[in-house]
Amino acid sequence: MFSKFRLNLIFLIFAIFLSLIFRELFILQIINNDENTQDIVNQNFETFYIPAPRGEILDLNGNKLAESILEPYLFLNQKKINEENITIYKQFISFNFNDLTNIKITPIMGFVDIVCNLKYLFNLRIKIKEIVDLHLFTHIFFVDSFDFSKFYIQKFKSNKIKYCQIVGPSVFIWRSSKAKFINSNFDKIFSIFSIEKSYYSPDIYDYIGHPLKNKTYYSKDYNEINNIGIFLGSRQQEIHKNILIIKKLLVKLKKYKELVFNFFVTTEYHEFIKNYFKDNSNIQIHLNDNSYYKKISKLDFAFACSGTVHLELCFSNIPHLIFYKANIINYSIFKLFVRSKYLSLVNIFNKKEIVKEFIQNDFTATNLSNFFTTLKLNKDKLYNYRKNMFDGIRSSNFENFRSSIITDYLEKSS
Fold first, then answer.
1. What is the DSSP letter of 354?
2. What average pLDDT does the segment 33-38 reach?
3. 110: closest CA among 325, 333, 322, 306?
4. Could you tell me the pTM of the whole model?
5. pLDDT digit string, tens, across residues 318-333
6. Burial class (CB in 10 A: 0-12, 13-18, 19+), 36
7. What is the CA angle 137-143-148, rounded to 5?
8. Cα separation of 320 and 8, whole Å?
């Protein structure tokens, strides 16, 4: 009975949001069509007026033979690639890689966020299609974000183009229908998890290893807990929710005077977090720069929002716990479709809780403080916790990332 009630509740929520979606689409497509069309044009093109400084040339009678006029130029601004992120693209330079998009990618997480960003997603899809047509691309590689890959292919799939997905949609916890879509519509899937092999056709599947294995530094130090990492998440809504509880956590841990809390943040949130904790003298704030992986390998323990950082800490052999809290709508939808009761990959692959997780209402400052205190005051428990994490990551069969598999495919299929 409860299950049926929950299902009806989910359908009701979907119905409400679908109504809102259709209303928004009507406004976008009908009422504000002219205005939105002009906005798209303004986003994609920019005109610069460059004055010709030579002045005017007159004949004996004062007639103009030459004059200065404003000449419009259209050019592609490649500011998206800079000195900070150029290393990400180095492996593609041999293929004359250029960033042709200049598209600002907006992080989107959860059903509610998707609804609020519908206009952006439709515009992004159209923009990518224009770029593909302009440059006559023969291959399109989608990196992660499978739902957008599907969103694009369902609208613009062409038999003249080979479609490849780098990083699959984690079908081992989601519905297998996602794997079926890839098998039917993609020419290649480059997976970073070997466990996914059984879900895909052998002729399109390749395991390329995990990129983080190449970047992280394995720590062999088994110190007492003094140097602590704090990872609040990468998205705005995560940071603003998590920071409130972490603030309370730090108050509870003030009795440990030797503790140093290291916050790892991106540039856009640096000042916000710095000002939020300005009264705490035992806090250091680090930007996620080229020294990031070396710095996290020096930690003794970490509190981390669920996400990529979980594997970064596992590969670095840093004991940690995971926390996460989503809004009730996103979490209800998540629980309806996800086949695992865990969020951390090490726990999912081993089908048991190895890394401690504090999810939804369990994510409180008191719970985090109690678990941390148990490990800090008991060296044997800390050692066993770290050893279990090491054994769990080893049994998950992670390998180093091999970009050569992708480049070999390009050479053979071009």
1. S
2. 56
3. 333
4. 0.69
5. 999 999 988 777 777 6
6. middle
7. 85
8. 38
